[in-house]
Design goal:
By secondary structure, the protein is an alpha/beta fold. The chain contains 17 helices and 13 strands.
Length: about 450
Amino acid sequence: MIDFKQEIAEQISKIVNMNKEELEKYIEKPKDLKNGDYAFPCFRLAKELKKSPTSIAEDIKNQIHIDEDIIEKVDVVGGYLNFYIQKDKLTKEVVFKIDNEEEYGKSRIGEGKTIIVEYSAPNIAKPFHIGHLRTTLIGRALYNVYKYLGYNTIGINHLGDYGTQFGKMIEGYKLWGNEYNLDENPIEKLMDMYVRINTLCKEDVEVLERCRDNFKLLEQKDPYCVEIWEKFKTLSMIEFNKIYDLLNIKFDSIKGESFYADKTQEVIELLEKSGKLQESNGAKIVDLEDKGINTPCIIEKTNGSSIYALRDLAAILYRARTYDFDKCLYVVAYEQNLHFKQIFEVAKLLGIDEKYTNGLKHVSYGMVRLLTGKMSTREGTVVKIEDLLKESIDRAKKIISEKNPDLQDKEEIAKKVGIGAVIFNDLSSDRIKDEIFDWNIILNFQGETRTIYPIYIC
């Protein structure tokens, strides 16, 4: 097994007056893969050799002996000597280490630190569709990486279970509840009800006002509204858990927006105390122009109902006190970039330690769109994850039956291959770019050679 750092240090030691053990300490891995696999900074030699780091790097490059079977090339970039390892050699070494080291890549760098990863967060009473797949898979990947690095990692599923949409669902249930048997395929029927009520809201403003009033009643713990809402939640979680079981995903905490509803008053009081809370056309807002954000953050609606920004602020306050986190990552699509800029700034007014506000990070990702355009639950244009996973498993099963009909445990292997193909397709895509959902691409089981994009977080 080759130790590339030792090999590079030994060759440099033949040129400069330093032992290879000392030199090896300085060799690092560049953050940008374009700058090679290993880099030696020549700044430390400048004083001793009385030359610029770039000149020293050029001198070493011109004199160094490299084994071309190991090192593909050496170049100089701004005082750094960059080494590019032969890719086939590097791959063999990495695979060898993975095969022979039980905990390859594991470390304790996160020991004593707490990371919260908020991800998945589907909306109650709506289908778990492919738009939720990216947050679920990216979030779980981050959770696993941080856990492997020794962090106390807390995975939170922040369910969308509060807001005006539930006022709409309650109104829909009042109007047409007796038309639906929710004992069978409840989410499909709730989605149909949601599409119908949204259509009616567009046609009749009075219906929309009733929907808003329903949510206000829900906030006030009206028994009828609470009963219906609880029913929607129970039915939804049964369906969501089927998906999580297929994907083998679990959470340390499942708390929806509603959990923070009774904690919002303290946020309002703290913002009033800061002197930054203003009234605007009957609503309560925080103006953020002095922070370079031209759109104010709405804290409370004109009818006194809470808004998700307020509940997110209450969640920050709760998590700081409960988990004493070092970082809190929000794995949410880039459509919410403005929202997170706003609440991260407003959170600084809550009087909590800077440690918490500095640790708030939005891990954005591109949207998943259909060939026909953007998905919308309101319009009923979504692709359900359950359908995608079942189709992928069926295709894997068909391929196995054709190519290896005598294989044992075909059902279980097809399940692993089918679900693995969906996960690979998602995580191998550029995180920031939008994806166009195409059955032929997402369920392509042929050999894949494209770049696996790392998940970078600042």
